[in-house]
Automatic annotation (TrEMBL):
GO terms for molecular function: acyltransferase activity, transferring groups other than amino-acyl groups. SUPFAM superfamilies: Acyl-CoA N-acyltransferases (Nat) (SSF55729). Residues 9-174 form the N-acetyltransferase domain. This is GNAT family N-acetyltransferase. The keyword Transferase applies. The lineage of its organism: Bacteria, Bacillati, Actinomycetota, Actinomycetes, Kitasatosporales. Pfam families: Acetyltransf_3 (PF13302). InterPro entries: Acyl_CoA_acyltransferase, GNAT_dom, N-acetyltransferase. It comes from Streptomyces calidiresistens. Keywords: Transferase.
């Protein structure tokens, strides 16, 4: 079982008991505002999404981790690596992404989790380039990308929802894999 630990977080594979808290995160319109067309997701689609995340681990050798707080075990959301099939023009590529519930936002947890996912991708999976994709206007995600050492390389449109997106990328040489002192 793949587990990555950071100062405050545990990144791990998904469990059945993660479905309800992740469904609550996915049902929050503010959390989902910058995801696809902004639609919320119910428990059934969350279950299916978690199933797809787990299948990605089996087929790709990497995937999206459940993110829990190390001190409480509470599920905060997810981070990790995925192939961004929704945006074919950037393929072949691997994307680092994250989604945290509102109580966990604004505390540096997304940066900490995504930094660990980048380290995993570069050091354990041997990736040479990782992208991240944010809808234009999602300033919070773009701030995380900047903290990771990512730089914008392309603006385009998500064909699934018609919203403009900005693609960022980083290589191992440019990545900020450890928190600044």
């Amino acid at each position: 079982m793949t587990v990555v630990r950071t100062e405050r977080l545990v990144l791990r594979r998904w469990r059945e008991e993660d479905i309800a808290p992740m469904a609550a995160i996915n049902a929050d319109p503010e959390v989902m505002r910058w995801i696809g067309d902004g639609s919320v997701r119910d428990a059934g689609s969350t279950r299916a999404g978690i199933g797809a995340m787990e299948r990605d681990w089996e087929t790709d050798g990497f995937g999206l981790f459940a993110v829990e707080l190390g001190d409480t075990g509470e599920l905060a959301g997810f981070t990790g690596l995925a192939v961004p099939r929704f945006l074919p023009e950037v393929l072949p590529a691997v994307e680092v992404g994250w989604r945290l519930g509102r109580p966990f936002q604004g505390r540096g947890l997304a940066t900490e989790a995504a930094r660990a996912a980048l380290r995993f991708g570069f050091e354990r999976c041997g990736l040479r380039r990782i992208v991240s994709i944010a809808q234009v206007g999602n300033d919070a995600s773009e701030r995380v990308m900047a903290k990771l050492g990512m730089r914008p390389v392309l603006e385009t449109v998500d064909p699934g929802c018609g919203r403009p997106v900005r693609v960022h990328e980083v290589t191992p040489a440019g990545a900020v894999l450890h928190a600044p002192a």
